[in-house]
Design a protein that fits this description.
By secondary structure, the chain is an alpha/beta fold. The protein has two domains: 2-217, no CATH class; 258-524, Alkaline Phosphatase, subunit A (3-Layer(aba) Sandwich), CATH 3.40.720. Helices cover 46% and strands 9% of the residues. The chain has helices at residues 2-30, 39-63, 65-93, 112-118, 122-138, 149-165, 185-191, 195-217, 225-234, 274-282, 298-308, 332-338, 356-363, 371-374, 389-392, 394-401, 425-434, 445-469, 493-499, 532-539, 582-596; strands spanning 254-260, 284-286, 289-290, 342-347, 367-370, 407-412, 476-482, 511-514, 521-523, 527-528, 563-564, 569-571, 577-579. The strands form three sheets. Strands 5-4-6-1-7-8-2-9 form an eight-stranded mixed beta sheet, sandwiched between helices. It has a three-stranded antiparallel beta sheet with strand order 11-12-13, covered by helices on one side. A hairpin with a 5-residue loop joins strand 12 (569-571) and strand 13 (577-579). It is elongated, with a radius of gyration of 27 Å. The N and C termini lie far apart (70 Å).
Length: 608
C-alpha cells in the first residue's frame, strides 16, 4: 500500500512539474537558431531548470491543500507571464526579454497588445497544453494533515548548495580583459548582459530569476563620490556645437560607413587597393587619423567609438560589449533616425559574436544583419569570409541598396583577418576564386595580407557599382576607416618597416570621406575614431551637445586635435606623445565614468 502511495505521489509530482518543463522546452525550441553552444554549460543549464522546478513543486506538495494551490497558481502565473513575454519578444526581435527593457519607458510599451496579436501563432499553440496540464494539476493537489516544515528546510538547503556550485561547471572566468570574454560561459553568467547567451546557459527559470536580481536587486557597486562629482562638472555645461564652414555639407545625403577590418595605411596603394586609393586621392583624406588598439575586442572598440562616441574602459576591466544595457540616447543611429534616416548594419559574422546583435539593438539600429545568421554555411565553405559576399548576396544587396528613404548603412568587412600564413585555407580559396595560379600565390605574410586587402578593395568596387546601378552614387557619402592597425601579423617588423613608427604612433590608420565629385582635400589635424561621430553629426547638420561625446568635430576651428591611448599616452597637436598628462587623463576618466555609471540614463532631456 505504501509503495502504491509513493508511486501515486511521484506521478502527481511529475504532472505538476510538467507545465514548467514544457515552458522551458518551448522557449528552447524558439531559441534553436542561436549560434552559441558550450558543452561545459549544458549540465548547469539542465540542472538549474531541474532544481528550480523541484523547489517550486516540492514546496507546493509539502504545504498542500488550498495554500499549496495558491502558491502553485502564483508561481505558474508569474512564469507563464514571463514565458509569453520571452516568446513574443524573441519572435519579434530574435532576443529574449530582459527586465532591463522595463526601465526604458516609452520605447515600445504602447503597442504591446498589437504585438501579442501579430506574433507567431506557434507561441499560443505551445501555450495550450501548458495551460491544460496546469489546470489539471491545480485541482489534484492533495490536502496534507500538516505542513512538512522540516522537508522544506532540507529542500531549500539542498537547492542553495547545488545552486552555489553549478556555476563552477561553466569553467574558469577570465580575470583580465580578453577579446573572447563574450563567449566564455562563466563570464556570460557573471556579467549577464547578453539575454540570448544568458538563456542558453541558464535555462528559463534561472534566467528569469537572475535577470530580475541583476536588474533590480544587485548592488550597483561602489559609487565613488569624487568620480560622480567629476561627471557632474563635465555635464553641468550645455554647449551646443557651433556651426562652421562644414556644417550641413552633406545634409540629406545617404551615408555608408565602412569599417575596414585590418586595412592598415601601408596597404593603400595603386596596386593593392586601387579603388580605395583612388577614393583617398579624390576625397577628404585624414592623413593623421588613429584607430587605437584597445584590448578585449579591438574591432568592437571601433564600432563603439563610431556608434556611441565612447570606447572600452581603460581604468577598470570591463569589455566594451558588456555595456549592452546602458542607455545611449545620443548614439549615431538614434540621432540619424530622428533626422529621418533608416539605419542598418551588415557584417559576415553572427549577431552572437561580440554580442553585436543585442548591442546594435541597444544603440538604436533598425537591424544588425550577419551573413552567417541568414545562411547555413558548411564548415568548409569559405565564401562567407570573402567581403564581396556582402554585395553578391541577394538579400544583403537589397538591404544595402534598396531604400524608400534616406539611409545609413554601417558595413563591417572581414577578409583581412588572421591567419596570414602562406598555407591558409582562406588564401588558397581566394586564389582559386580569383584564378591565381599556385606559381603566383604569395609565400609570405605580407603577400597574403595584400591578397586579403585586395579582396576588401574588390568589395568596395562592387559597392560603388551597386550605388551607380541603383541611382544612388551622387547622393551617397562614404566614410571609410580601418578598425585598427594590422597587429594580427605574426611578424610585426613588416608593419614597423612600412609605417616607420612604433609605440602609440603605430596606431595611425586610414580614414577617408568620399562623395562623387568631392573636391580633394587633405586634413592634417590629429584625430581618432572617437572623433568620427561628432564630425559626421556636424557634416549632416545634426545638432548636438559637445559634452555628450569624448571626441570632437574634426572640422571645428577651435579643436586643435589630440588622441588618447589605452596606455595613458596622449598625442597632442604637435605630435608629441606624453604619458599621464592631465588632458589625456581627463578624456579617459570621462569615457570610463560615463560607461561605469550608465550616466545618460539619469539625464532627462527633451531632445531624447
Amino acid at each position: 500500500m505504501n509503495e502504491k502511495k509513493q508511486e501515486n505521489r511521484l506521478i502527481i509530482f511529475i504532472v505538476m512539474a510538467l507545465p514548467f518543463i514544457l515552458m522551458d522546452l518551448a522557449l528552447r525550441f524558439f531559441a534553436r537558431g542561436i549560434h552559441y553552444f558550450r558543452q561545459t554549460a549544458v549540465f548547469s543549464a539542465i540542472m538549474f531548470t531541474v532544481i528550480w522546478i523541484v523547489l517550486i513543486i516540492g514546496i507546493v506538495v509539502m504545504i498542500g491543500g488550498w495554500p499549496g494551490r495558491i502558491i502553485y497558481l502564483a508561481s505558474f502565473a508569474a512564469f507563464f507571464t514571463m514565458y509569453l513575454a520571452n516568446a513574443i519578444y524573441f519572435n519579434l526581435t530574435s532576443y529574449f526579454f530582459s527586465f532591463n527593457l522595463a526601465q526604458m519607458a516609452g520605447e515600445g510599451g504602447g503597442y504591446v497588445g498589437q504585438t501579442m496579436l501579430s506574433t507567431s501563432p506557434l507561441i499560443y499553440v505551445f501555450a495550450a497544453p501548458i495551460l491544460i496540464v496546469f489546470f489539471y494539476s491545480l485541482f489534484h493537489i492533495k490536502k496534507r494533515d500538516s505542513i512538512n516544515v522540516r522537508g522544506m528546510i532540507v529542500l531549500a538547503a539542498a537547492f542553495l548548495v547545488i545552486h552555489f556550485f553549478l556555476p563552477l561547471f561553466y569553467g574558469k572566468k577570465n580575470s583580465g580583459l580578453e577579446w573572447d570574454t563574450w563567449r566564455n560561459a562563466r563570464n556570460v553568467y557573471e556579467n549577464f548582459n547578453d539575454s540570448n547567451k544568458d538563456f542558453i546557459i541558464c535555462g528559463f527559470y534561472e534566467y528569469t530569476v537572475r535577470d530580475a536580481y541583476m536588474t533590480y536587486l544587485k548592488a550597483e557597486g561602489d559609487r565613488d563620490p569624487q568620480e560622480l562629482a567629476q561627471l557632474e562638472q563635465i555635464f553641468s555645461v550645455n554647449t551646443e556645437h557651433p556651426k562652421n564652414d562644414c556644417t550641413g555639407m552633406f545634409e540629406g545625403k545617404n551615408l555608408i560607413i565602412l569599417q575596414l577590418e585590418g586595412l592598415d595605411s601601408w596597404l593603400l596603394d595603386r596596386e593593392t587597393t586601387p579603388t580605395l586609393y583612388r577614393m583617398q586621392q579624390e576625397g577628404i583624406n585624414f592623413s593623421r587619423h588613429y584607430s587605437f588598439y584597445n584590448g578585449g575586442g579591438s574591432t568592437f572598440n571601433s564600432e563603439m567609438a563610431v556608434n556611441i562616441g565612447y570606447v572600452t574602459p581603460m581604468t577598470y576591466t570591463k569589455n566594451g560589449y558588456s555595456f549592452s544595457t546602458n542607455h545611449f540616447p545620443y548614439s549615431m543611429p538614434r540621432l540619424f533616425k530622428k533626422a529621418g534616416y533608416e539605419v542598418n548594419a551588415f557584417h559576415m559574422n553572427t549577431r552572437e559574436y561580440y554580442s553585436r546583435g543585442i548591442n546594435y539593438e541597444n544603440w538604436g539600429f533598425d537591424s544588425y544583419r550577419g551573413l552567417m545568421d541568414e545562411h547555413e554555411y558548411a564548415d568548409d565553405d569559405l565564401s562567407r569570409e570573402l567581403d564581396r559576399e556582402l554585395i553578391l548576396d541577394e538579400g544583403f544587396y537589397d538591404g544595402i541598396f534598396k531604400h524608400d528613404k534616406p539611409f545609413v548603412d554601417y558595413i563591417i568587412t572581414y577578409t583581412p583577418h588572421t591567419p596570414f600564413s602562406a598555407d591558409s585555407s582562406l588564401g588558397r580559396y581566394l586564389a582559386q576564386v580569383d584564378g591565381i595560379s599556385e606559381f603566383d600565390m604569395p609565400t609570405d605574410e605580407e603577400g597574403m595580407a595584400r591578397l586579403y586587402a585586395k579582396e576588401t578593395d574588390h568589395f568596395v568596387e562592387l559597392l560603388l557599382q551597386g550605388l551607380e546601378d541603383n541611382g544612388l552614387l551622387e547622393d551617397t557619402v562614404i566614410v571609410a576607416f580601418a578598425d585598427h592597425y594590422l597587429y594580427t601579423l605574426t611578424d610585426q617588423t613588416i608593419v614597423i618597416d612600412h609605417k616607420h613608427a612604433t609605440g602609440d604612433l603605430i596606431n595611425r590608420t586610414p580614414m577617408i570621406i568620399w562623395q562623387d565629385g568631392t573636391t580633394p582635400h587633405n586634413v592634417g589635424k590629429i584625430n581618432s575614431q572617437v572623433d568620427i561621430l561628432p564630425t559626421l553629426l556636424n557634416l549632416y547638420g545634426i545638432k548636438y551637445r559637445e559634452e555628450n561625446y569624448v571626441g570632437s568635430d574634426i572640422f571645428d576651428p577651435g579643436y586643435e586635435g589630440c588622441v588618447f591611448f589605452p596606455d595613458k599616452g596622449y598625442l597632442d597637436k604637435n605630435g608629441f606623445v606624453q604619458e599621464g598628462t592631465e588632458e589625456g587623463m581627463a578624456l579617459i576618466r570621462k569615457n570610463d565614468y560615463v560607461l561605469k555609471y550608465d550616466y545618460f540614463r539619469e539625464i532627462k532631456d527633451s531632445s531624447d
